[in-house]
Amino acid sequence: MSETAFDGYLAQWRDASPQRALAWLFLRHDERACFGALAALEHEWLKAVHDAREPQVAAAKLGWWRDEVQRAAQGHARHPLTLALFADVRANTVPSAYWTAPVEAAIL
Questions:
Q1: Rounded Cα–Cα distance for residues 67 and 9 (Å)
Q2: Which positions ≥6 away from 89 have C-beta within 8 Å?
Q3: Which of 5, 12, 39, 9 is nearest to 24 (CA)?
């Protein structure tokens, strides 16, 4: 995973949610990568929905994210955020359907 890419996604999340980024200060250092990855992933999903001018574009982006979290749950993550998130063993205990449900709901 590229630290630069991961840090870039974290910076985007912090810029978009400074009030939530305050929680970062209360996390132990070993918790930050997983929490940051999950928060930034949610930000990317919301951005896919809200920034797209055409519904088909949003659906395509969310479809890519659905496929990515499915790959990640099977140990084949490619994106810096899913690589960081699924490096934490706790993420691997979550059923795959829980990872795809928010994306599936947004596509509908």
A1: 19
A2: none
A3: 39
* C-alpha of 6 from chain center: 11
Other CB atoms within 10 A of residue 3 CB? 9
Is the separation of the CB atoms in 84 and 33 below 8 Å? yes
Q: Is residue 79 within 8 Å of 1, Cβ to Cβ? A: no
Residue with tokens 């659906």: 59
Note the pLDDT tens digit of each residue in 32-60: 999 999 999 999 999 999 998 899 999 99
Torsion of CA 40, 44, 45, 51, to 10 degrees: 140
User: For the purposes of burial, counting CB atoms within 10 Å of the CB of 106, is it exposed (0-12), middle (13-18) or buried (19 or more)?
Assistant: middle
Model pTM score: 0.89
Q: What is the pLDDT of residues 62-107, one digit of tens each?
A: 999 999 999 999 999 999 999 999 999 999 999 999 999 999 988 8
